[in-house]
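Need tokens for this chain, all 259 residues.
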Amino acid sequence: MDSSESYSPSAPRPAGRTVTMKTFLSLIVVFVITQLLGTVLFGLYLHMKLDKMGEEISLREDFVFLKKLQKCRKPQDADASLLDCTKILNIFRELQAQTSPIKEEVSRALTGDKKPSATIHLAGLRGSRKVLQWKEAVYAPSMDDEFSYQDGKLTINKGGRYYIYSQVAFCAKQEQHLPKQMPPFSVYMYLNLPSESDRLLLKGVGTHGNSDDLCDLQSIYLGRVVELQKGHVIFVNVTDSSRVNYDHGNTYFGMFELS
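Here are the structure tokens for all 259 residues:
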């Protein structure tokens, strides 16, 4: 062997084998990812299926309970004698007691009515005293336990925040025999407190009539929001009750509780 013969390196790997290896590895990665996705999707499907089965089982249990309840409410059925009807009826009563408050809340939410508010509206009753007298008005809320009325004074039996109001119609023109220097017709709304002097809440002053009418009918309206406690008394006072007009809808007094 000739020592001068040059050394030849080993031949390079064929390019086709490298491409095949890369393709094989890519297929393996795709297969693994596909398996993972398939496992996740199958898990979600199985979870949804189990939930649906649970709902169906729950509905079936409810249906079976209703069937038992129906049989217990008909003692003449032969199957009812095999059931513990006392226990089933007690369960039904407990469910009714639990759902009744919910139904009331839903009904109030739909109607927008949270709870009944204290309301009263009274019409003027002819009298001769400065403290005006009242009667139940037509087409108005009747007197309930939240108020009590006596001798022109309205007593509050339920503390809260109220809007109180009154309108008094009167003849603005004075009688001819009355002196001209008399003060104008005035309306006052008072809060009567136990062991205290009356507190003025509202005041309205009318004007003298200038027309040729015998009465020259005018009106004074009073109204405000006030915080009232149980036992507080409200009444309306006027300077001259003989000038008050008691025709329907002209003179009234009332209040309603604010939510």
